[in-house]
Design the sequence.
């Protein structure tokens, strides 16, 4: 509205000047001496030409810069560009007015003021340097208002990271990540390296370095780090647009240094904040899996992993699963572990196929897996990422129902497979477990489907699941 008001005022002034110059010229000449009358009329003509140039400038500002760029596209026009166009149009209007009203060539004016321009140029060398640097920035499009920049300069104690808020004739205004504003002379930006995090658009790749003791198996480190990275990038400001990766960068006698590469949207957070999010997630994963850090002095190395350690890991993992927790006694849990099989799967291995009938479920010990659903229209929709401690496929194992989703390994995957035969041996020894399992499955299924909270609905669901389980384990049903 402000821009429209200014435009209407400019049109009104132009109309008054044009009427005074063309309609009132006779009255002016009649009321004054010939010499003064001609000067007044010529002045009105020059002012009319300048007013016409200003009206044209107001049109461009209101319709294009404010109406189209700022409001429709959400882009800001640098002040230096707007000012340059205004000055150019005013100078054009003045030169046209001088030529037609006074016969003065604008080129002659520039030539006559050459000596003055040289003196001013020497006195204002720094300011002129900033002005032309600002023009260079806007013409080559190296950055624009809204872009996030890192500026490297010997004038700063460390690299400066901030978002461009404005570009004027002499300065560029950066809003720093801590909320402060930094005024940077334009020549600093053109004379030093500047990293533009906003161009090209989209997520940018970052990395964090993770040192791990050289005694720990590298394939397990890669699987653990990659699994956690896959889970971390599902949260902002990190991005899952491209998959993370883990590379061994270098090693020495004590440690192997891994680089975890990932992508982040730097329009939402500065690089250091994005790295912090990933670093904290990786640190938690290393602690959870008890991955040793490098020791530069003396380290007591534990013996290599034995079969007993694997069994203990499997026993603890199964004991933490909801379907077995507080249901199986210690001796039953030991019997289940003895019948389970630990498997190692390569990345991009299909663990479960949607629509197939399942006779096993999988407990993830290390690594990450993607859960996706193939829709009827052909769309593939990612549902979740499974990591260490997650169980998948238990409903199909217990009821024989078809698989409802695809599960594909994202990294090297260590899983514990629990088969139908393993469950049958437990149920044969204690058939009452069947009802307890159905109760846990019904509680979980009711939470997933968000059905009514009444006990009748839950009891009905448990009865249906128990019926399916009895039918699936038909030999047990006949025995019962």
Sequence:
């Amino acid at each position: 509205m402000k821009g429209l008001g200014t435009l209407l005022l400019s049109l009104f002034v132009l109309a008054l000047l044009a009427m005074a110059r063309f309609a009132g010229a006779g009255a002016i000449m009649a009321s004054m001496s010939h010499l003064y009358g001609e000067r007044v009329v010529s002045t009105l003509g020059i002012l009319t030409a300048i007013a016409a140039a200003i009206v044209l400038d107001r049109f461009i500002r209101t319709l294009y810069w404010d109406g189209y760029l700022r409001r429709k596209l959400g882009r800001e026009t640098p002040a230096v560009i707007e000012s340059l166009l205004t000055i150019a149009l005013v100078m054009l209007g003045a030169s046209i007015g001088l030529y037609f009203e006074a016969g003065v060539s604008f080129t002659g004016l520039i030539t006559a003021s050459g000596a003055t321009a040289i003196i001013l140029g020497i006195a204002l060398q720094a300011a002129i340097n900033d002005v032309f640097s600002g023009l260079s920035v806007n013409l080559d499009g190296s950055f624009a208002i809204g872009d996030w920049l890192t500026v490297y300069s010997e004038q700063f104690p460390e690299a400066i990271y901030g978002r461009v808020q404005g570009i004027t004739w002499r300065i560029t205004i950066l809003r720093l990540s801590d909320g402060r504003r930094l005024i940077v002379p334009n020549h600093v930006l053109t004379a030093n390296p500047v990293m533009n995090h906003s161009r090209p658009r989209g997520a940018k790749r970052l990395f964090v370095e993770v040192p791990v003791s050289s005694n720990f198996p590298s394939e397990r480190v890669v699987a653990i780090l990659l699994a956690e990275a896959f889970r971390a990038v599902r949260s902002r400001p990190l991005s899952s647009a491209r998959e993370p990766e883990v590379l061994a960068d270098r090693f020495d006698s004590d440690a192997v240094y891994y680089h975890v590469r990932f992508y982040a949207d730097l329009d939402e957070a500065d690089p250091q904040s994005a790295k912090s999010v990933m670093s904290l997630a990786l640190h938690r994963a290393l602690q959870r899996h008890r991955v040793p850090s490098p020791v530069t002095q003396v380290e007591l190395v534990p013996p290599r992993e034995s079969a007993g350690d694997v069994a203990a890991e499997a026993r603890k993992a199964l004991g933490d699963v909801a379907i077995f927790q507080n249901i199986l006694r210690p001796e039953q849990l030991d019997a289940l572990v003895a019948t389970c099989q630990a498997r190692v799967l390569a990345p991009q291995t299909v663990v479960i196929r949607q629509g197939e009938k399942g006779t096993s479920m999988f407990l993830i010990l290390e690594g990450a897996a993607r859960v996706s659903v193939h829709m009827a229209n052909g769309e593939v929709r990612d549902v979740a990422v499974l990591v260490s401690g997650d169980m998948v496929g238990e409903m199909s194992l217990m009821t024989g129902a078809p698989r409802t989703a695809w599960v594909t390994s994202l990294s090297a995957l260590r899983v514990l497979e629990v088969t139908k035969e393993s469950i049958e041996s437990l149920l044969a020894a204690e058939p009452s477990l069947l009802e307890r399992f159905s109760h846990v499955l019904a509680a979980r299924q009711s939470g997933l489907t968000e059905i009514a909270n009444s006990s009748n609905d839950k009891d009905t669901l448990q009865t249906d699941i128990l019926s399916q389980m009895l039918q699936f384990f038909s030999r047990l049903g006949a025995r019962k």
Summary: Confidence is low (pLDDT under 50) at residues 112-124, 447-456.
